Structures are given as structure tokens and as C-alpha cells.
Records
---
Amino acid sequence: MRVLPVNTDVLLVELDELSQAVALNQSLLDDPIAGVHELVPAARTVLVRFHPTRIDAAELTALLLERDVSAPLGADGEIVQMPVSYDGDDLAEVADLLGVTPADVIAMHTASTYTVAFTGFAPGFSYLVGGDPRLNVPRRSTPRTAIPAGAVGLAGTYSGIYPRVSPGGWQIIGTTELPMFDLRLDPPATLRPGMRVRFVEAERSTRQQPTAPQTAAVAGDDSGSRTALEVVEPGLGSTLQDLGRPGHADLGVSRSGALDHDSARLAARLVGNASDAASIETHGGLRLRAIGELVLAVTGAQVSATVRPASTPETETETDAERPAARMPAPRSAPELQAFALRDGETLELGFPTRGNVAYVGVRGGFAVAPVLDSLSTDVLSGLGPEPLRAGDVLPVRRAAVAAVAQIWGADAPDDTLHSRLPAPGDVVTLDVVLGPRTEMFADDAVQALFDQQWEVTAQSNRVGLRLHGPTPLERRDHRELESEGTSSGALQVPPNGQPVLFMADHPLTGGYPVIGSVASYHLNLAGQVPIGASIRFRAVTDPQGQASATDDASLTKEN
């Protein structure tokens, strides 16, 4: 067993085999360590997220190394019967690869009891192990762009079921009608780590649905309010975001949430909401119309914010040339980093960022939108949460509770505001990096190149990750295939082309490319504000635990 660094608040435990990873994960669930708040089991690893203010990495490492990992795999987990129609497109090809008949493949697949080892790839996607060892087939050489929900596939020694339509390279041998992930169920994932599965041919099964109780979908409750925000123009990448949905790794769900937690919290507090209330996150170009009297605030990226008066019956039918000057609407600028009123019918227009990457719009009372797993965050990778904003959407606003409205400056803001310290396209931003857990897989020159060169943020970047480009790709010295293991926000995953991807809020729960290092947790908010066209220079952290409590002042340093 090895304990490897990932970040100031994340460790990766590497074990010799899958059964040990499953045993360690179960041990930590049965007998938790104080300060540990999430576990992500994988093929031979367990990712451990912890609170550094409650336990430090050295103490946690010692406690992890004491754990017994000798428990047998899948000894007593709950058994789920999985009805399968063995009509998959790849069934005949799998049979040819193994030198048997399709009937033999079906017999092998239904003869064993599988164990859910870990989840990942998508919510509800479980990696099942313990099948017939002869069912060891490679992934397809060319992945499909769309595999249907319920497809049962093989990859290596794993078996799995696709919970929704998605691309993939597994060999599909059948389909099941049993839902793998359904938000009407409690819990929504049919399979979770430690459970056992028996595959049976559909015509011999009872086709029973999961026994978990179903609950009605939660309806948006506006608590008697008649106010709302209408989306006139959605702008770029506009979504609802709060601080995410942590603690659902057993369902295959990553945290998601705002790219810049500090700015999202500030937008909430400026209008008197709880600091974890949802705001609108946008890359600019957003236009919102008030239905009723509202109080808003704009934080994050530096954008122009213009309030345009409500149209009258006369002005609605007039062009700008026809409208007399006396009746011309008089737009006004919304104050920076302060709460302001948006009257009934008025429109807030946001420009595109001149500094920073994402802006946040908070509204007093918060949005009366149904949460998904206790969060209003839109996860663009998994498809969980509210849909991205579209023109014509009406977002109901709750009636505000009595609460203080925060104010960070008086009438005159200082020259060195939060906005002025955000990066602009062309700037070079310095981000601290904790090396590990797979630094040893890279040549020494590659590690040096990570820190010596600037990395441009390319146009292919999004909420899943910043795709970086540097003049010298990062070369691996160890080219062995890395089994899937847990990932975290800030991870610098390096695909075969040597150009790293910096995982952001909507990153996958597990990944199969090595992570050379991770942007330190205290710099993740700044990383979320790095725009396309800016560059990043990485700086090695020599004392991750000492830096974990550092202020964010250092994170705002940038080069020109």
C-alpha cells in the first residue's frame, strides 16, 4: 500500500489489486476517519478527500496505512438480478475474439456473480468484476459516438451497463430495461460499490424494477413570490451554479458547482442570501428582464453591466430613429460589486469579460428551481441539474427572507479592486502545483518543462477542463496503461499528445490518463477565472500542508 499526494486536501491510496481497494473503501465507510469527507474507489486506488483543518496529511497517511485490506471481494453485498436481452451489436464479434459461439458468451456472462467495484465515467456507470476470466476482451478500436442507455458491455475483465446515451468503446453484448440512474429513485443509482450482480437472460427473468421507493420530483417553490427573471439572451455558457453536490461519489457523481466559489459566494452575500445560494454563472452576453421588483448583484469577471428601462406601449412599436429624444430610454450602469435594484420590466445587460472568465449574477431570495441531489448546479459533463439557460426561460425567484445585505466598499471603490486583479487575455497567471500522484511516470525533463514554460489556454476549454498548449509536450517514461482512478478539480491530466488538461468543476469522477500534478486547492478559484488566450505558468509547492491555510493574496499574482 502506498499513499500518494494529490493536493493540499486530497490523497491517493494505491494498492496491489482491486480486492484491496474495495476492502479499504469498505473499511473507511464502516469505520470513518474524522476529517475525511469523500472516497472515490477505483481499480487499484482509493481517492481520499479530507479537511486539512481537522486532520493533516501526515496523520491521515499513518491511519490509512494501518487499515486491514485483506477482506475478500464481494463477500456479502446486496445481490441485484439484472435482466439482459443478449442482442448486442458486438456479441458475434466477442464470440469470434474468444473462439466460442454467442451462446457460450451468454453462458459465461450469466454463470458468475459480479461485484460492483467502483463507479465513474458517468452517474450510475458501475465497473463490475468477478466474472468468468475467459471474458477478457479489448475495447473497440474505434469508439461509438452514441451507445444506447441500458447497453451491457465488456472491456478487459470488466462488465458494465451504460446508464444513458453516451459515446464509448466497450463491446456491447446486450441490453437491459432496468434503469441504472433515475432521479425518481432513492438512491438514484441502482448499483453502488460493494453490491453484487447476477445477469440473467430477460426471457427467464421477472423483469422486476428496483425495490427502492420512488419519490415525486420536487417542484420549484416560489414561497408565494410573484417575481422572476426572464432570460432575453442567454449569452455564452450561462448556467445556474451553487457550490455543487459533494459526497455523491458512490453514485458516480462528481461535485460540479461554480468555477469560482469566492465570486459565487460574494454574489449571494451581496443580495442577502446564504453564501451557498445559487447564482447565474456566465461568460458574458447575458440579458435578463425583471418580472417584479428585484435586487441583484454582479461579481466575478469584469463585465459591463447596463440597466435599461422598461419599454412602454409607445416605445415598443417605435424604432430608435422614430422615437423622440424625450422618450428615449436612459440606461444606467449597475454599480460594481454592490447590490442594486432592478425594477419590474427593466433589463440587465452584461457585456463580455475584459478581465476574468466568468461573472455571477445573484438575486435576493434565490431561485425557486427544483434541486438535483440537493444542488442547483448544472453539470455539463454528466447532464445533471437544470438545463443551461435558453432565451425565453423564466426563473422564478423566492420571496426574500429578512437578511443583511453585504457591502464590501462604500461609494468610492479602491483602484486595486477584485476586478483589477483578475487576468485578461494575454496575461500570464502563476498557479501553484502539488506534484503527484503519477509524477514518476514522466521523464525528469517533462517535470522541468511543466514549470519552465508557459501554457496557453486554448479555445477548446470549458467547464470540464482547460485544454493547455505548450511548445514542449510532456513526455512519459512509463507508457504502461494506467487503470482508471479517481480525479479531482485542479488535476493536470496528460493525454498521449503530452498537452495537459487542467480539470475544472465538471471533471469526470475517474480517469485513465496519468496526473502529473494538481493546481493547489487555494488557487482553484483563480484557475476558474483564467480566460481563453491567457497563459499559465506553474510553480511547484514544496510544503502543501503549510500552504493549505495560505491566504488568496498570493494567488492573484500574475506576470505581464
Note: The CA atoms of residues 275 and 385 lie 19 Å apart.
---
Amino acid sequence: MKKSVSIFLALLAMIFSCDKKQTKSNISENTNQTKWVDSIYNTMTLKEKVGQLFMIAAYSNKEESHTDTIQKLIKENAIGGLVFFQGGPVRQAKQTNLYQSTSKVPLLIAMDAEWGLNMRLDSTARFPYNMTLGAVSDNDLVRKVGHKIGEHCNRLGVHINFAPVVDINTNSKNPIIGVRSFAENKINVTNKAIAFTEGLQSLNVLACAKHFPGHGDTDKDSHKTLPTVSLSKERIDSVEFYPYKKLFKNNIAGVMVAHLNVPSLESTDGLPSSLSYHIVSDILKEKLQFKGLIFTDALNMKGASNYKETGDIDLAAFMAGNDILVLTEDVSKGMLKIIEAYNKTEITEERLAHSVKKILTAKFKVQLNNFKPIETANLISDLNDETNDALNEEIFINAITTLKNTDEILPIIKEEKIAFVHLGDGNSAAFLEEIKAHVTVDVFSNATSKKLLKKLKNYDKVIIGYHRLNSRLTSKISKKDQQMIEEIAKNNKVVLDVFASQYCLENLSFENIEATVISYENTDIAQKISAQIIVGNKEAKGKLPASINNDFVTGNGIELLN
């Protein structure tokens, strides 16, 4: 007994010792952070402080004059950061090194890498869209995706990923969110967003949830106009805000505020949410207690730029409570307006310091206090190792969803006579190659409806593959393809495999279709895994992340065992 007590006391001592070491380490880190932030801030001119508020667009696929312009803006305006868009990884790394060497204070580098660097850059890995991840039950796989994207961001010197999208896509006609959303269910969206954020931020890459207060129930694109969200404040609080509340408890680093007209939250007619003090300061900062970095959505988008003159928009966005002004139309005009307001005491030193010190703190957290140039040797190979494909395969094995399997028509077996009909504008080569490795298939395409229907009568089963070139599109399949599918299904046993968003099937009659498989995307990996499911070599585990119609709703999915 005495021996057990001694061991217990020894363990307690070790725990307390570890806690003390950890506490000392945290105190030391916070002290160093405060010292660095204050030392930078205290040496800044007013113009340099205001410059920190701005992030401007940079491209690595443009001519030399673009690079010269960015360098000039860094030197003359002391801007705080860059958002990289189209180009390639080596070119971007070289530009980042150049721009960092030009800047007095290290620059925060951001990207939209919702499904990986490939969202913007060639020669990089692409991971599944959020809606595909929404079909996966195992959230640890989503965490792995966030972690892998974090690895790639780190390797390329990217500190902020403008992700995850946490809009709850309850409107199937949404022209801008769609498959960028995880799901139409707030719990699913939240769980996926938390997992993705944990994976990303475990690599010290800052995550940024968007688009606050919620862009999921819109039918307009804020790049082109100001969408209206006609929901009650009670509904917004219980649904649209739900993922934000949970993510704030999980220490997400940033939030991006959208350009939306939300009458239930902002009484001024037509005032974009990004410019609303009530939405940004009263609700996001005070009510929801968000303490992290607040970014505007791009201020050159029509949802914001149509509201005020250039420069006035930047001032309004800062006055509303945003910390970082993203992609302004004119940095110099924006800075001038904010400096004028400061000199007129419309902006206090306390308000300016609040945002600038938050930005500097973020720079310390991503170790920009000790910036090291990006190593370009082996960059392409480092970003494209075999683990990317392995993770993609694992995702699709768990995401691809079987919605119907009448009379257990699946899996297809060798002895059956099979026809394949290709529809849509996308390629089906990888799917066909994998199918043909297991069963004999006759391929039909570009045939008139009557001739095709006559030929198909000779087959036991018909696989119809709908392959969309751009599987981000959520628009309905064409009337012609819809009629073709329904006609074939009247006279044949049909397996419909859709390599596109499930939203495209909204108007399709499933009555005579024996089996339906949603593969979500038209990538080679999705095609390969889906073919293996159809021939019984892989299991189907996915669940529908958003509804197609009243018969096939979110959460539906039949497990096929191999």
C-alpha cells in the first residue's frame, strides 16, 4: 500500500513539474511575442501602421511589370500582406522571397486553397471539394486533408489559407458556394470544418472561416452584385452562426466577412455586411466573442465596390471593425482615407493599434519574426509525392454514395452483357479502363436516341456515365441528357453513375433507374474508385451531403459491401 501511494505521489509530482515547465514555456513565448510586436509597432510611422491593414493580389503568371508594381506598393505603402492567385509554385516561391526581401516588416502570405494549392497553382495537388468531404462519415479523413494542405502551404511559404468555407448550402441554386460547402446540415458542416481547421492549424497555418454571416442561402454571386439573405435573425443565429460558434471555441485564427445584404441583421438598406459596424463589431466581435483576425472578402467585388467610392470603401470596412482589408481597388486611396480619418480623430490610436498589433501577433505566430527564404530546390517533387493520391483514393472510397440498388443489380458480374453510354462533356477514360479490366463492355456515344435504344435491348445491363468537364458546376443536366437517361431506363436495367454534383439531378426521374451512384467529381481517381465499387472490388460508404429531391435527402446512402 505504501509503495502504491509513493508511486502515485511521484506521478503527481511529474505531472505538476510538466505543467510548470509548460506554463513557463507559454509565459516565455508570450513575453517574446509581446516584445517583438511592441518593438515593431513602436518604430512604425502612421503610414506604415495603416499599410499593415492591406493585403493585395499577387500573381506569379504575369509579366515583369506586375512584379515591379507589387514591389513599388510594398516599398511606398508598407502593405501588410499578399494574396497569391494564378501561377506556379516555383515562380511563386521566387516572388515571395523577392517581396519579403523588399518589405521592412515581413509580409503575411495568403491563398485561397480550399481544396489545396491547385485551386490557384499549376503543378500542385488537388484534393476533393468540400461537398465530397461532406459525404464522408470519418472526420479524421477531413483532418488529414487539412493537415496535408497545411504541409503544402508551409512548404510554399503560405501563412494563411482562406478556408474552410463554412457556409451551409441550403439553396441548391446557389451560384457561388455550391460544392465549396461541406453540406446542407449545420452539424455536418461544423464537424468537417473543425476537423479541417485542426489539421491545417496543427502545421501552424492559419485557417480562416468564411463567408460570415453566411452565404449558403443565396441565389446571387457577390462577385457580381450584392446578394440578399432574407432569413430571420433567429434562423441565422441557430443555423448560419452555428459553425462559427463551435470554431471559435476551437481557436480558429480568422474569419472572412462576406458582402451580403442581411436586413434582419443590418437596418441600413443595401449596406454590405462587410461594411456594417453592427454585423462586424456588435455581432461578430461582441456577441460571438471572436478575438481572432477579421478579414474582409475582396473589396473589389461588386458586392462591396458598388456601395461607395474607391477609398471610402476601405475606410468604411475598417470603421466597421475589420482588421485586414483584402484586395482593395486602390491601396493609396484607401490608406489616404484612413490616415485622414485618423488625423481628424475619427479613428483613435487605440483602434488602429488594436488591428495592427493583432496582425503583427499573427506574423509572430507563423514565425515571421525569424523569416527564412523558401527553398526552391525539389519544391515540385515535395508538393507532389505519392501520399497525395493515396489520401485522395481514401477520400473517394469513403465518399462515393450509392442511392439505389434495386434487386441488388450491383455489383456487376463477369458473365453479364454490359453496355456503357457516355453522357456529358467530360472524359470517361479512367472509368472505362477500370471497368474493362473486370468485365466486357461495349461503348456507345454520339448515337441518335432511336438507334441507341434499339441496340441497347441486346444487353443485360446498361451503365450510364454522366461525366461533367467542370464538376464544380451545380446546374441541372441538359434536357436532352435527362430525356436520354429516362428513355434508356424504361427499356433496360440501368446503373447511373454521376461524376458531378448531385445537385445536377434535381429534375431527373429515378423511377425506372435500378441503381444510382454519386461519384461527385470527374477526376481520374474518382472514376477509378467508382468503377471498382460497381464491379464489387470496393465498398460504397458515402452519405449524401445535400438533398437532390424529396426522395433522396441529406444522409441517404446504401452501403455496398465487397
Note: Residues 2-41 form the longest helix (40 residues).
---
Amino acid sequence: MLLTCISSQLKAQEVDSLGKVSLDSVVISAYSSKSLMSTAAAINKIGTAQLQRFSGASILQAVNTTAGVRMEERSPGSYRFNIRGSAVRSPYGVRNVKVYYDEIPFTAPGGNTMLNMLALQQIGGVEVIKGPGSSLYGAGTGGVILFEPAVVTGKTAFEIGTNLGSFGSANYHFIAQLPKHRVVYEENRSDGYRTHTAMQRRVAAYQSKINTFHQASLSLNLIYSNLNYQTPGALTLKEYLANPKQARPSVGATQGAEVANASIEQEALFLGLTHRYAFAKNWSNSTSIYGFYNSTENPAIQNIELKKEPHWGARTTFLFIKGDVTLQTGGELQRGNFTSKTYRNLQGQQGIQLTDDQLDLWQWLAFTQLNWKVSRWIFTAGASINSLSLNFLRTATAPVQAEKDFNAQLQPRFSALYQTSPNFSAYFNVAKGFSPPASSEIFADNNSYNLALQAEKGWNLEPGMRWKLLKERLFLEASYFHQLLGNAIVTRRDAAGANYFINAGKTRQQGFETSAFYQLMGNKKPLSIGIQGAYTWHYFKYVDFVQLDQDFSGNRLPGVPTNSLALALDLKHKSGFFGFITWNHQSKIALNDANSDYANAFQLLSMKLGYQRQLLGLPFQFFAGADNILDENYSLGNDINGFGGRYYNLAPGRSFYLGFKLSWLKR
């Protein structure tokens, strides 16, 4: 789609592929299966068209229209991405989930992922593997996220675009596409909808894809990100009802968010190389190496933390295909050398030094997976061996030196898929998940450390099906999962709002997820109409969790809604007009382990209308939209188990935006 990734030509009388979903061949890269219909796993595919249905500021709304996956934003720039409730242990960011960008490990060896460094124009698509992906991707009980970069098309084209909206939001981007190179600059700004929620992000990215020799290519990805956003802090219910837009106020001797200048200033550089080579008739290889540097300054309510987290790594995969047999085998290695210093926060200024830490990490995994097709059956057997080692040294105040190892963890995965025809398949997937605690969970925000923290482990059992009906105009998919998890890691917060973590015994996590797409009127008609929906039912409970004198056994896990529903309508007319309408519903969620406090259910309605055509021979698109049209008061990213009931982070109210894109393509 030219207006979003400059990849095709737009004619004056035609509507491009906005909103199009190809029902006959959804191509995926997960497990190297190529076809979604022949993959025995629950996978959400979010393509470019889906990403462009909304304002263009982030991927959040597109992610939240899919089943079993949820993205949250506590304040502009502060994202959380969870798969099947994995945000239970996520105070921020992405935890318990492995993330890759163009087959390159994007999750640090310490377990954290800088999701907010990726701008929308760098992303060509997202694949979400729900549940453990242990046979190829190693540790992680939540799942795997595979980001696809935008396509280097082999053509010459340029694009500029802007988007202005409520709360002082402004997004700009510029794309220069050359035959083998792609350069992107994107800037996002917002004054914020709460006190102390201003945000600014600048991202510059370069991609290149060149042929090295016969049947071989080299891809390069270079990303630089500079991000600064204010963190207003969570409110108690009393504060939330009095003024939900206020930042966390000062209470007694505890300073508020504004006084402390609570914020995140982050600078990051990522360089990744991926070489793909078919070196024999049945053999091919993909090898990636990367380097990542991240520097963060984080004034919080109590302390100021300065972190530097450089890390590097490599991944190689050999693929053998002969007849009905496919074999994948390879390995992954990551090394990190992190440093962190904390100081007392004295009204936004550095006070006395509290800690001076150094953390060295080694993480590796070896994996293999065999696929065997027998008639209409596809059988899969695979496993990975995972290892994580860390060395910790604290030299300030009371010196501490410690080591922690999670060695030789074997994680198998088995599946069977039966395909009665090209239009129907059913599968059963069994996988064991293993998720060691992230480095920031062992060494917590409040300067404490918990070397006794254990890795999460558990089996996930999952049947599912996919079905194409009505001459492939209707696509249905559904899956049920049942996961028993031991040593589940949950979040605690102290009086200053700092996070620390404990193991919560056993949990039972089960759910039903289904989605559908119906092409009511095809793209060859003057008016094209597409309808899609996604429903999620999650029932997560503590089986055995006793903390001191409190017994939470039998309670619901906090932070996970029982019911979520998303409905979307896409309209396109050959004249160039298009419209997208989206409705989301989320049921109430428990805010603490005791289940004594709940966040109310809410529903969100959004709309985007636009027109695209050629202007003086140049493809042009104009659009306008509105989010939270019903002006709901809700929290998109609660602070679970907040000390003293400090849970609530107000999300934006009713908001509007308008923008345009202008492109030029060399003929």
C-alpha cells in the first residue's frame, strides 16, 4: 500500500488495499510455516492495513482488536504489551514474552523489551504467537512477538505525512525509499491529557537489503530513538474521583510526581544484520547478529536511577526441507553488561548516592523442530534448552556480590494438525513454558533484590481450528487453552510506588479466544465492506498462593479482564472515500490479589474517515478521526497491587485528529 509503506502504485480511479484481508493465503513467518491454515498454534497476524486503521500514533489500537492480546498505555509513551495475561507481572514494558525484529532478538538478555523505541512507520506487520513458543524461540510462558520491518520495495519513492490532534498531539514522518535502501524519520509529541504527561519521541531508521551472492541476501536495520515522557503516577480512588487528571499529589513526607519530576529520558541505538542463504538444494540458513545500546534516566517518586544497558547477541537457524519433512535447528546467544546507579530524589535533583550496581548476563538457547506431513496430518515435535546466568555486584553502601543461574532448562513442544481441505484445519498443541525472572524483577525499583525469585514453569494445552466459508469470504478461527503455571511471578508496590516481585505459588489460566472476518462486499465492487470481530474469555485463578497471613488461593488473578470484545467495520469506495469504525468492550478487572477492589468495565468507540486520490499526479490521502467518542472515564493500564489502593491511571477522554499523506513514486 503506497500511502503507508510506499510499496505499490495508486491509480486515480482505484481504491488501494486499505482494510483488505486475504482470506485464501495469510502468509506468516512464525515457525517457518508460511501458511496460517497449516500452523498448529494460536497466532494473531496484524498486517499493515490493520495498523493503519487508526490515527497512526502507535500500534496500540490495532493490537487491541485481536483476541487474547492486549496493549496498555499508562501515560503517553509508557506502553505494556501482554499476551494472555502476561502483564500480571508487568509494571511496565514487556515481560514474559520474547520479541524479535526481522528475526533479530529484540528482547534484552535481562528479559526487558524497549517496545516504545519502535515507530509505526518501521513496522510492516506483527505476528503474535500466543502461549509458549519453546520449540524455536526458547524461554517465555506468555508468547512471542515477531515484528516485520517495512518492505524495501526495489523502487524509488518518497512520502511525507502529518497528524495533528487533541491534547497537543502531533505526529510527523518522512520516508525515502530507494531500490535497496529505506530511510525513515518519525516524530511524535503530546502535551498529555493529565497533568505531567507530556511526551516527545524522535526515531530515525535505516534499512537496506542487498544480494551478496547467488541465492543469498543481507538485510541491515539501524534504529535510533530519543524518547522523553513524564510519568504522572497512579491515584487512589478518592483522588481519582476528585480529579482524575491530576498527577500523583504529595502526601506527607512523600513528594508527588510533579515535585519529583517523575519521568523517563531514554536514548537507544540498535544495529542488526541478517544474512539469508540457500546453500544447497534442500538446505538454507538465516543468521543474525545485533548490538543494542540503551541509556535511561528515570527520576521516580523516591529515587533517581541512571541506567546503561548495552548488549549484543546472535541467532542462527538451519532449515532442511525434503518432501514432506521439514527440520529446523539452531541456537541463540545474548550477552549484556548493565550498570545502574541510584540517588535520592530531592525535588527532582540528585541527592546522596544509594547504589552503584553492575550486572553481567549470559543467555543462550539451542533449539530444534521437526515437521512431518502424513497425508492430511502435520505432526510437529521440537524442544529448546535454555540457560541464563547473571553476576551481580553492588559497591555503594553495603557491598553485595551474588550469582544466579537457570541452567539446562528443557522445554518441549508437540502438535498435530489435521487439514480436511484447504478451507478447514484443526490442531492440538502442547508446550512447556519456562520464564526466568527479568533482571529488573530480581533487582527491583526500590533498591531491594530477591535472589530467591524462581522461574515460572508450566504446561500449556491448546486445541484450535480455522475455517473458511462462503466461497472464502468468511474466515473463522477459535482456540481454547489451559495452562498450569508454577512459581507465577506477581508485582508488589511499596508506599513510594516502587515495584518489587514475589513468586505466587500455582495458578490456573484458561481461556477461549475466537475471531472472524467477513467480506460482505468484495474489493471488485464499487463499495467494499469488511466486518471483523474478536472475542476473548479469560478465567485466571490462584490455585495455591499464601503470603504471610493472607490466603489468596481461589482468587482471580488481578489485571486480567474476564471478557473482551472488539468489532470493526471497514468501508471503501472506488471514488477514494474510506471509513473505519471500531468498538471495544472490556469487563471489570480485579486490581489486587485480595480481589477487594475492581476497575469498572468500559467500552470504546472510534472512527476514522478519509479520502485518497491523485493530486497533480501525486498520490494524496486526507483523513480525520475521533477516539473514545463516548467519552468514557477509564484506566488503560492500572497499577496492580498498588500500595494503599493507588491503582488508577486515567486514559484519554474524547479526542480528535486529522492528517494527510503525500507520496511520489518514480515511474
Note: The chain has a mean pLDDT of 88.
